[in-house]
Amino acid sequence: MTSNEHDVVIPVDYSDTDSAYGGGSDVASITTSLTSSVFDYHYENGRRYNAYRAGQYWGPNDEEQLSQLDLSHHISLLMQRGRLFLAPLGDSPQRALDVGTGTGIWAIDFADMFPNCQVLGTDLSPTQPREVPPNLQFEVDDACSEWIYTKNSFDFIYIRSLYGSVSDWPKMYDEVFAHLKPGGYVEQMEIKVVPTSDDGTVPPESIFARWGEISLAAGDAFGKTLRCADESRQGLINAGFEGVVEHRFKLPMGDWPREERLKIIGAYNKAHWESGMEGWCMFLLTNYLGWSREEVLVYVAEMRRMLRDKRVHAYHEWYAPVITLLL
To answer: What is the pTM of this model?
Structure first.
């Protein structure tokens, strides 16, 4: 079953066309504790990266990229009309896991919403705040390794934006399946990294189209697919999950839509791309496609020029399969 806003063509606002440019784990011994070693960050090309399992994740963990992650969370709330999640959890989940928690902002909001639920957020980087709700715990851990939690123990497992982060998705989904309670939910939200348009303003020869091709090639070279938005639904079904409802959204890349809500979302998403692009591609292009830092910066500058062009009505897609485990 699919519930979506994906098939609707977004009406363009042509009123502003004067310018082409606009402005606690079960086996703690296996989980890395927050000691000095995990703060011994790796630096390259002017960006900061995780120390634990260095080189296994493409994204920086510096302040610039953390701000981008928080902005992405805000965009997610806007797209979902204020909803923190789409699964029909009810009022009393007891245990929840946020896989790849990033800044921890989603886990903090969820823990505030359900104060009687024990919430765990895991990530390769210890970049989460110290002051958190009492029912929330953060751990430095690698979700791609064997999970050490009690089987059948989580009511809800949340996964967001792990594209390019997992080399073996079937193994990951098997872990999710094994650790959800009967009747529990898994929700995965992934962004499609290929910009497109409904009106031909993103032609095949454009830098946006090139971005999509290069990004997918870089993920393949890294051995961790960036095609998660297209593959997650079937991957979860293959793992044995049932009751799939997939939500699809078009996410404008700029304030070009006519509808006010989408115009606001597009403006935030434009800022999201502006602040995030360098971090999204620097590690992969320099380490796996042989680019220099200077070539990446020129490439990102070309992307920004098209991003600011109001004649371009680009968007990318955001997919969220919500699945209940029926046993």
So the answer is: 0.89
